[in-house]
Every structure is written in structure tokens, then in C-alpha cells.
Input
Amino acid sequence: MSQARKLFCFGYGYSCDYLGHTLSEQDGWTIAGTTRDAQKRDKLRERGIDAYLFDYEHTLPDPLLVLKDTTHLLISTPPGDEGDPAFLIHAQDILRIPTIEWVGYLSTTGVYGDRSGGWVDEDSELRPSSQRGSRRAKAEEQWLSLFKQNKLPVHIFRLAGIYGPGRSALDSIRAGVSSRIEKQGHAFSRIHVEDIVQVLTASMNTPNPGAAYNVCDDQAAPSHEVIAYACELLRRPVPPLTPFETADLSPMARSFYADNKRVRNDRIKNELGVDLKYKNFEAGLKACLDAEDYALSILKNVIVKNGNK
Output
């Protein structure tokens, strides 16, 4: 990779922020991206991130200037029925940026649809069974078309359920919104945000344009087991099991149980050399709690020092 490097993220959210923070600790990186919220844009700018508003109503003001010198482009914007907004609005602008070395699109394992508990890998047929999965599959096709037709170095990352500090079962339990739903034989795949960053940076270092990668840990597990373990870590009572058929779930929450599959992650290990930090939800949740305890200890030290002044 060239010495001067610029990451631009369409949709500077949770995963992109972790990636941006990791890269900013290295020499030579400039970090930029978009958000739909003006307050978040201002906060990102305060942190040294070159942030812009972007959605269907707010296109980039001068895309060639904003994207100038971008070497690494990451797309994390949620697609609509017509596909990905960054593609629909700015694909031709992106093709005019000569410095781009790597493009990543954050998709979802939902593109595989329901497999009745069976296994899928990156060569499995895409058979989305939800609107979210269908939109992501369409967006994948759009971005890959720029690789096939224009040689844009596009990589697809199909993410399992994302969790990490501030966004895990620990937080839902503290907020009092967790429940333990049992659906016989059903399991979810997950991925810790730090391991997402591991996969993305490994791909940046060894690009393989046109490739797709499943990004998940080694253990698909029922959600009620995750909640039970999180309660154990927090020393809180474990909620009783509720059968899926009688559970009071919103349509959105119920839709997450429609797909049942197990996702293979061999390619990120064999091709990218990734050794997952958190191979299962137990290790990942324990790390989330440790990170919170560490942050709390730092805050307490700051309060004590300020109180002694």
C-alpha cells in the first residue's frame, strides 16, 4: 500500500468507527466518512474525522473533491429496494478516483436465506428469504458489477450478528429488554467488532478483488444461551425460557428467527490468515465486560485526580 492512505466510509457507523480508530493509530492514515445525522457529523469532525452528510436527500457536495486521494473505500450504508444509495448516487464519481486500491462492501449472511440449520460457505447460492437479505444481495451485485465491468477492486464481507462494547447482550440485560426465546434447533452466528476490523485490515493488506468473505466466529449458538451467559457475567437472574411460538415479539424481532443456518468462516482463516480473537460468544462477552471495567477504572481515576486539584 502507498505511504499516504485515506479511508473513506459511506455510513460511518459502529464497525467503521472501530476500523477508523485502528487505522488512525498507524502513520499516514486520513479518515473520512458520511453520516445521516448533523450532530454526529459535528462530533466526528471534533474527533478529527472528515465527516459529511449523506443520504438520498443529501448527496456529497463535491464528490470528486470529497473523495480525492481516497485509497480505501468502505461502504456500510443500508440499502433500499433499489439497492445501495452510495452506488446509485456516486458510483460514477468513485470510478473517477484514480487512487483507489481497495473497496469493501459490508453485507450480511442474511443473503443466504434459510437453510434449516444447514451449513453455507461463500460459494453457496444466494437465496435471501427476507427483505433485508434481498436488499443486501442486490447491493452486492451492484458493487461487484463495478469490479466485473470496470476493474474496481471490490471485496464483499458478509457479516454475522455484530456485537462489541456498548452493543451486546450485556447492554440489553442492563436495559431490561432481554428475553430468552427458544426455537427448537435454531442458532445464530455472531462476530465481535474487533474481529471485523481484523478481517478488513487483513484484506487491505492482501487484496483479492471480486472475493466474498463470511465474517463470523466459530460457534453458531441459540440466543437464549447468549443471554444466560451474559446474566451469569453480570450476576443477574436468568430470565425463563419462552417458546418462540408464544413469545410476544415485534415483527422485526420475529423476522430474525426466520432464517436458520450455520456459516463457515474457513476463507478468512485460510486466505487472509485471520486468527479470531473471540472464537465464541463466551470469549467475546467476557472481553466486552473487561473493556467496560477498564473504561470505568480510567474514569474513576480521572474523577479522583480532578477532585484532588
Notes: The mean pLDDT is 93. The domain at 5-163+191-218+262-278 is CATH 3.40.50.720 (Rossmann fold). The longest helix spans residues 281-307.
